[in-house]
Design brief:
The structure holds two protein chains of two kinds.
Chain A (H helix, E strand, L loop, with lengths): L2 H33 L6 H18 L4 H24 L8 H23 L15 E3 L2 E3 L1 H23 L1 H11 L1 H6 L4 H27 L6 H14 L5 H21 L5 H15 L17
Antiparallel strand pairs in A: 1-2
Chain B lengths: L2 H20 L3 H26 L7 H18 L4 H25 L4 H19 L1 H4 L12 E2 L2 E2 L3 H23 L2 H11 L1 H6 L4 H27 L9 H14 L4 H17 L7 H15 L4 H13 L5
Antiparallel strand pairs in B: 1-2
Helix pairs in contact in B: 1-7, 2-7, 2-10, 2-11, 2-12, 3-4, 3-5, 3-10, 4-5, 4-10, 7-10, 11-12
Classes of the chains: A mainly alpha, B mainly alpha.
């Protein structure tokens, strides 16, 4: 493969990885904005997305697109149930630190459930369209990559429209700015929190269902994805959705190009070193203005 | 540090002395050793969280630096165990200072994010520097701990070593809390602005506590390495850092004794859940959730609170 082909290949891999990180990072941001909680069970939404999709397509034999929507709906349901059972009540009294640890306990619990249902082995899914790679400029790219990119871009655009053009979305943004003020003008904050978990779970499921055909999925994939997504969220200036998305794509590209041109051993280290440097040089994140980047305290 | 705490330390020493008379068998003793090791790390974390109001998402890395320092220096460079212990402490403090100084000057949870990053970087280093660390397959044949040429070959010896060291750490930490530093930290907890206005150098104290917690973790890691004689990077990954945090929260952050309770409970629990085979993660997660939901202030304060709530309702 010539250099141009290589670059296109790494670009495609990087964008694929990046779109997953972007989805998880955006999910972090949505919940963080509504509640101030860093939801460390975010990766488990992705895991559920992949594995539930496997259940409906492979085990039950339902058509791909039907099971895709069922998967999104079910995972969203899991997210809402999670909020009502484990976050809603304690969030009234417990300190944020305890809530953070509750999300960790939930992630362990979810992994337990997944291992109980699916066991420890990784699962695969049929590709959404042809599994034959398309040759572009000397690089072989799987059509699934376009699905992943397309779906995540669609999700980002929909989220943007939701937060900027709809009353509910604006109400959620208001909660992020000031919860007390939001409730004073008649916004049902508790409902917004529930909605934030629902949206995050949907995004996770979308990511999970679309990467499983090329990356497989197993019960304990969550923590690694949560870590990357969290990096994206922080790099983008915690609480700033668009920043998280762009940072997610950047992380993916950095990882892919480090793997390709330097060594796969340090692909993750590069991203993390960038994270730490950004924190020390510009604590509000790459894209955060001083105002957006004002980090709430844990 | 108050009569009350001296009494508690004495009671704890007595319990430590009595337990081996009741518990026997290598398996149970080794669980007790792990318990003590976890307690050491969590006591440091609880100082950091409860008194300096900061969280570390990378304490497993400091634990790992301790373990790998002694492991590498004793097996490959022929250093004596004590020198290796000291080197571990030096390395961890150095790393803690390097990330602590920039992160703790800022308000907010920058330390959490910086420790998360550095923790992962150190984890990657353990994995990738195969020549020194043995890479993912680990480092084996770490010599047993010894005192004056007399090697520790039984779990019971490590039991006394670990819990003895923990007593010293607790004594030191309790003294610290009841000293000038502790009072400054308490003032800071009340109001950072007010404490700063009183002339307390907030970031200096925060950095000191952070370094101290890293040192505790490093000591625990060194003892761990000599006890198990085999270490691999997986013991020092992100999830382990989270487990340490969880032990602190489960026990209760407002009190050092909570850290001891939490670490003990959380070490003990998974071992005895093994009988449930593949259900163990599920049950473990469920128990954790129950504790956190019903006792958000932690175990130590939660039990008496629940007791008051359900059994003494009439009197209230």
């Amino acid at each position: 493969m010539d250099l141009q082909g290589q670059i296109i290949q790494y670009l495609a891999t990087g964008l694929t990885l990046g779109s997953i990180y972007a989805m998880v990072g955006l999910g972090f941001t949505i919940i963080y904005n509504a509640t101030g909680i860093i939801n460390l069970a975010q990766g488990e939404f992705v895991m559920f997305g992949g594995l539930i999709m496997v259940f409906f397509t492979t085990t039950l034999g339902l058509p791909l697109f039907l099971s895709f929507f069922i998967t999104l709906a079910l995972t969203t349901g899991i997210g809402m149930l999670y909020e009502r059972l484990f976050i809603h009540h304690p969030s009234k009294t417990a300190p944020l630190m305890t809530l953070l640890i509750i999300t960790v306990a939930v992630s362990i619990f979810f992994r337990g459930i997944a291992m109980f249902i699916w066991g420890k082995e990784p699962y695969s899914l049929p590709h959404f369209s042809s599994p034959e790679p398309i040759i572009i400029g000397g690089a072989a790219i799987l059509p699934q990559v376009f699905w992943i990119l397309g779906l995540s871009l669609l999700a980002v655009i929909l989220m943007n429209i939701f937060f900027n053009r709809t009353i509910t979305g604006k109400a959620m943004s208001a909660c992020a700015v000031n919860r007390v003020a939001a409730s004073l003008v008649g916004i049902d904050v508790s409902k917004m929190v529930l909605l934030s978990f629902a949206l995050s779970a949907t995004l996770g499921a979308l990511a999970g269902a679309s990467i499983t055909p090329i990356a497989l999925m197993e019960y304990d994939r969550g923590p690694m994805l949560a870590l990357k997504g969290f990096c994206a969220a922080v790099l983008g200036g915690l609480g700033f959705g668009t920043g998280a998305v762009v940072a997610g794509f950047l992380l993916g590209l950095i990882e892919s190009f480090t793997t390709g041109f330097i060594s796969s051993a340090f692909k993750e280290a590069t991203a993390l070193i960038i994270l730490i440097l950004v924190l020390f040089i510009k604590p509000s994140g790459i894209f955060g203005s001083a105002e957006v980047g004002k980090i709430k305290k844990i | 540090m108050g009569k009350n705490n001296y009494l508690k330390l004495l009671v704890m020493a007595a319990i430590i002395a009595v337990v081996p008379l009741i518990v026997s068998g290598d398996y149970h003793l080794s669980i007790l050793v792990f318990m003590g090791i976890n307690c050491m790390v969590v006591v440091g974390l609880s100082l950091l969280m409860g008194y300096a109001g900061q969280i570390s998402l990378g304490h497993a890395a400091f634990f790992g630096i301790g373990a790998y320092s002694t492991g590498i220096l004793t097996t490959q460079f022929g250093l004596s165990i004590y020198a290796a212990f000291l080197c571990g402490i030096l390395f961890s403090s150095l790393v803690a200072v390097i990330i602590g100084i920039p992160a703790l000057r800022l308000q907010g949870h920058y330390l959490a994010i910086a420790t998360l990053g550095i923790g992962e970087i150190i984890y990657i280093i353990f994995n990738e520097m195969v020549g020194l660390t043995g890479g993912p397959s680990g480092l084996s044949n770490i010599p047993a701990f010894h005192v004056g040429g007399y090697p520790f070959s039984h779990s019971i010896q490590y039991y006394y070593l670990v819990w003895g060291a923990l007593l010293v750490i607790l004594w030191f930490s309790l003294n610290l809390i009841h000293s000038r530093v502790g009072r400054a930290l308490k003032a800071m907890h009340g109001s950072e602005v007010a404490a700063g206005a009183m002339g307390i150098n907030l970031s200096a104290y925060k950095i000191q506590i952070f370094v101290l917690s890293a040192i505790y973790a490093s000591i625990a890691g060194s003892i761990y390495a000599h006890f198990v004689s085999f270490i691999a990077p997986n013991n020092f990954a992100f999830m382990n850092s989270i487990m340490f945090l969880m032990m602190g929260v489960v026990g209760g952050l407002h009190n050092i004794w909570g850290a001891v309770m939490g670490a003990s409970l959380m070490t003990f629990l998974p071992e005895y859940l093994r009988v449930f085979k593949e259900f163990d993660i599920l049950i473990y997660g469920a128990i954790l959730l129950a504790i956190l939901l019903f006792m958000p202030e932690g175990f130590l304060e939660g039990i008496p609170m629940l007791y008051r709530k359900y059994f003494k309702r009439g009197e209230a």
